[in-house]
Amino acid sequence: MRRHRIEHRGNPEYYTPIYEMALSQFEAAADKLSLDPNLRKRFTNPKRAIMVNIPIRMDDQSVEVFHGYRVHHDTTLGPSKGGIRFHPDVSLGEVSALAMWMTWKCALMGLPFGGAKGGVRCDPLALSRNELQRLTRRYTAEMIQFIGPDIDVPAPDIGTNEQIMAWMMDTYSQFKGYSIPEIVTGKPISIGGSLGRVEATGRGVVYCILEAMSHLNMKPDGKTVVIQGFGNVGSHTAQILSEKGCKIIAVSDVHCGLYQPNGLDITALRAHVSRHQYLKGYTEASEISNPELLELPCDVLVPAALSEQITNDNADRISCKILAEAANGPTTPTADQILKDRGIFIIPDILANAGGVTVSYFEWVQGLQHFFWKEMEINERLREIVSMTFNNVLKTAISEKVDMRLAAMMLAIRKITESNLARGLFP
Length: 427
Description:
Elements: H1 17-33, H2 37-43, E1 48-57, E2 63-74, E3 80-87, H3 92-109, E4 114-121, H4 129-142, E5 152-156, H5 162-176, H6 200-215, E6 224-228, H7 232-243, E7 247-252, E8 257-259, H8 266-276, E9 286-288, H9 290-294, E10 300-303, E11 322-324, H10 333-341, E12 345-347, H11 349-352, H12 355-369, H13 375-400, H14 404-423
């Protein structure tokens, strides 16, 4: 019987532009590494993907059915790790791409995790607290066979927070019959969360930016910074960079952007958001649109919102020296090449935003040991890991004559490849 050769470029079930982007990045690194075709096939699709229907009773007593997902991309290095997002655009293809990036991110940072991601297609802002709790608990119950401290450890992501993690931890513990805080990370301190976890992703972004500035012979004092997104990651990045002497001239959220060429008062801005939930209405800056914000001249641009924000349409108008990808996949492959040709120094997402999963690893370890670390110790360990990884990527980029993204991907894939070859193929 004749066997037909099939091109392994991802199953159509996962197809979305963001999944194609993740595959494109992987294939560029795999080509550079001359990766064995058999290993290439194993990495282009997730290990497993779970889709569930989540019926919950709404406050008006009607029943709504939401769609939930969890994807484990790879578990070679250990249990899978990745966030849970609640967002109207969540899809199988999106979480599959994010899970793939998590695999590379964990390998790059030297963490004993594989990559995972999950989410529920919903608008969390349209749900009451009680509806959110019922949604979270039912989602957790549907995933109970596929998560666990030694299987898959969720964390917060877009649209979720430490309260969502607390409900997940409690639901899992109720099923098991005893408290298991290490099932999730990013949970409240009072139930086993880690000091430093809330600001960890933003702090990691800052550490990468400072390393890039050092490489480019720049001093932080007075350097202008533009940040798209003022959620957990963007606001903490802004706060810490401001404390380091940088001037934050623009920030944005889903409703508007704010521009102040003399520098925004980040403490006052965060207080405004705490009171009003959004940036809109802040009177000490001019309103601008998100597209306008991305094109502002600055020293450092930090996309910290959603994916595919810098594209072929606007890449030639991006005016920064350093682009630090705090979001996942904010730059499309075509835009990536344009920025590279223009000499913009890009800190890729799997490096720039890896502070969150690194401190999640610290939280997981603390939970398993029932022994907790001081915040200064956590921040120092994070700084050490991020700085070491940044410089490893930089050395690879220089020695291999490639950009930082390709260098980071090559290091991560090489690590996973060596692990796969050592373990072999079952059966």
